[in-house]
């Protein structure tokens, strides 16, 4: 006897996968989520939601607790550039709080979440099979190092850029009353430190670097920040992620569609990852509802283009020593230009 035919099986229960599942459920589709990790899932993440991400969550009926973010601040030594968001406020949200809010919403809509890893996939003319489940579509939302992306033949061979310029991320939380209402990005020669207020008495510190090393070692590149948090109690363990850049040859292979980090990832430098994941998740649901999966590749490129171009351009400048040291001074001397860039990021 054939197993039940679902409309959608989502592989991965992180924010992107849960956003797809919630969008499908709200559209009346039969959807199931497969996530091998139990409970609330944490991840190394800057945790600053841009205004666009807050709006995308609101459209799904999700309102996670956190701390209001008014804009972005860049620091390099004594040089400071600051720009406010023009399209609404952002929000600093602990990754666990975001996941809990999304998962609760999915469960309220009656979506099953199965503790099931997806390690085999077979496609047929009118459905796809995965671990004994059948569905019209399989959505891969299983992260940077996606198994389903590989199984679907969508993993792109590493390029010189991915192998020569790898980047990694680390994150830790501190019991500290926020000293800023913006995401503060401090620039060092080979790394950036992000301070994000995520609650009335909690800040998150994330470090992105092209050099591998432990959190304490990485923090030493930011003496002013290290001094500022020296007496604050760490309240979470260090989490890491990387290499950050991952490529996919396409977002669609038959009835398999990629979303979130599994769809390809440039870098966390601009902090837009969650916003892009949520917006492209909505596009994916729209394409599935129309039964036009092939439209999703164009929709993904269209909705993520601005973010990808901005991030690639900033990364390119970051790799040029003569340009890298001018990024923050240029932003400080040209506040209108920095405000324009921040406005683009916030949408």
TrEMBL record:
It comes from the Bacteria. Residues 7-286 form the FAD-binding domain. Gene3D superfamilies: FAD/NAD(P)-binding domain. One of its GO terms (molecular function) is FAD binding. It holds the Pfam family FAD_binding_3. InterPro entries: FAD-bd (IPR002938), FAD/NAD-bd_sf (IPR036188), Geranylgeranyl_reductase (IPR050407). This is NAD(P)/FAD-dependent oxidoreductase. It comes from Saccharopolyspora aridisoli.
